[in-house]
Structures are given as structure tokens and as C-alpha cells.
Amino acid sequence: METRSLGESDVQITPILIGTWQAGKRMWVGIEDEESIKAIRAAYDAGITTVDTAEVYGEGHSEQVVAKALADVRDRVVYASKVFANHLKYDQVIEACDRSLTNLKTDYIDLYQIHWPSGSFNSEVVPVEETMNALNKLKEQGKIRAIGVSNFSRTQLEEAAQYGRIDSLQPPYSLFWRQLETDAMPYCVANNISILAYSSLAQGLLTGKFGPDHQFAEGDHRAKNKLFQPENYQRVQKALEQLRPIAKSHNCTLAQLSLAWLIAQPQTNAIAGARNAEQASDNAKAASVNLSSEELQEIDRIGKQVTNHLDNNPVMWNW
């Protein structure tokens, strides 16, 4: 798979990344470590060399699973991890990074990101300058190679960028969730900041596997996702029906079509999770789906039938 530069850093990422929130198990159901390891390894075997994780995914468990899957090929993969909103004081950032290094069994993290802005989830408010000072120190020490932020608005991104080079923004972004396009995307394009889109398949909606009457298991966080609420869900089903013929014409799945559309957007790369090896391999194939400008415009139009009815709140869940 071709690689792209991460912002202005010397880190090279694949346009499709494997996401490992589910590997942490917390807030998911039916996840087994063995299957997560197989999925991560299958992604690597299919050409995806960039993996995204975070300290908060199962309190380090996801990072440990990533290490089990990829430790023997560490020099050929890119690790992206994140420090959570409750660890943004200077010393806490340093300590969190050291924990992640231990979990990942590595002496450097290629991309280290602020997971949520300070104050999120009732965390203590810490000036972004203090957090950035710690990240800059880690970069000087060679413990991290690039700095990124996640779930930041354009305003928050601009503020953080005053205190050091930001090479990536990780927002929720998919064909069915597009607030980014009118907020931070123009700034990212102007400043060569890579976009690493999470929930790139709208938490599985864009796979087409959820029928009109789907019910989630107890404890599955997707039950609170705004896109799964009844009125939005009906629009989603209608849009999927319109996307199916385009996918069929490319002999690809709805998921592959959606990922191909996403990585064709400015500065954008797609993080896709996988429960098993087959899903991981399938996601990788999206990088070879070539869409014409007319098809990109048509897919764009179909997606807006869903997103035009959503409010401007960038948080995807009713938590």
C-alpha cells in the first residue's frame, strides 16, 4: 500500500489505519484478544502498517494487544497512541507516555496525541501550553516522533499549534458524519495537518450489515450513537440503498466504497477497526478502489441526505 507523509513530519503512514478501540474490550461486547491479535496481524499482512491505539482503551489493554500482534515487526510499523484528558498536566503526560511505551514494548511512539481537549469528561482544566510543553519535551527526547490532537475543534487546534508543531488531527469523520468539513478541515489543508478520521465507517453503519430493525446487545456503546436513533437511522438505510449500485460497479463492498471516498478527501486518512482478520483484510482493499470525480460527487450527495439533518454538535454519542 502507498504511504503518505504525516503532516510535515518524517513519519510515513498508510491511508488506511487499523483502529484498536475494540481491542481494549471496554465498552464493546464479544471481543477476544486472540481475534484482535489476528485482526491486527491480518491488517499488517494486507499492507496496513499504521495502527492507532490509546491508553484509555481498556486502561492499556489495547496497547498491550498491539504489542503482542506486532512486536516482531516493530521497525516496519507506525504506532499512534494517545494521552487521555485526565492526564494532561506536564508530569502526567510524561508518565502516561512512559506507560504507553511499556505497554507497546517499544522505546518510541511515532505519533502521540492528546485524546480529548482538557476539561472533557469532567477532567481538570489544564492550559494546552502546559500539555504541549510536555509533548515537545518527549519529542526532544526521542520518545515520540510527532504530535497530534484528537477531538479538537478548529479553535482548539489553532491554540495548540501556537505552542508546537501539530502534525495530525483525529476527528470523527465519515460519509455520514461530516462536521469536520466546515470546521477544522480548511485549517488542516492550509497548514499541512493530516486528518486521521475515526469512526470512518460510522461505527459499522456504512458496512450495511445493520438492518432496519437492528437491536444492540446490552453494554454496546453504539446504542447511544446519534446515527442509530430512529429518524436518522431511516435516512441511513435509504442512503445505503443508493450507494449499493456504485459499490457493485466497482465489485467492492459498501465499507470499501465508503473508505475509498473518505481517503479521497483533502488531507484525509481513515482509521478502520476490525473484529477479525477477514474484516481487516477487507478494509485494506479500499485503498485500491479508484473512484472518478463524478462518482465522488454522487457519493457526496448521497451522504448529505443523512448529514444535512444532523446538528453541529461534533460528539457522536448521547452520553
| Stretches with pLDDT under 50, minimum 5 residues | none
The largest pleated sheet is described as: 8 strands, parallel, barrel
**Percentage beta strand:** 5-15%
Please indicate the count of domains. Answer: 1
* CATH classification, class level: Alpha Beta
Main sheet: strand order: 3-4-5-6-7-8-9-10
Order of SSEs: EEEHEHEHEHEHEHEHHEHH
- End-to-end separation: 37 Å
The secondary-structure class comes to alpha/beta
Report the mean per-residue pLDDT as an integer.
Answer: 94
* Architecture (CATH level 2) name: Alpha-Beta Barrel
DSSP summary, beta strand count: 10
For CATH, the homologous superfamily is named as NADP-dependent oxidoreductase domain
CATH topology: TIM Barrel
Percent helix range: 25-40%
Whole-angstrom Rg: 18 Å
- Number of helical elements: 10
Mass-distribution shape: globular
